[in-house]
Amino acid sequence: MRQLQIFLCLVLVFAFSVLGCFAQKTSDKPLLLVLNKNEASMMAYDANSMEQVGKVGVGDGPHELVVSADGKTAFVANYGGRTPGSSISVIDLKTMKETKRVDLMPFMRPHGVQEINGKIYFSAETNRAIARFNPKLNKVDWVMGTGQTASHMVVGSADEKFFYTANIGSDNVTMIELGEAPPTQRSRVTQIPVGKQPEAIDLSPDGKEVWVGLNAEGKVEVVDTAQKKSVKKIDVGARPYRVKFTPDGKYVFATLILGKKEIVVIDAKTHEIARRIPMESEAWGIIFSKDSKFAYVTAARDALVYKIDLQTFKVVSKAKTGSVPDGVVLVGM
Question: Which pTM does this prediction carry?
Answer without folding.
Answer: 0.90
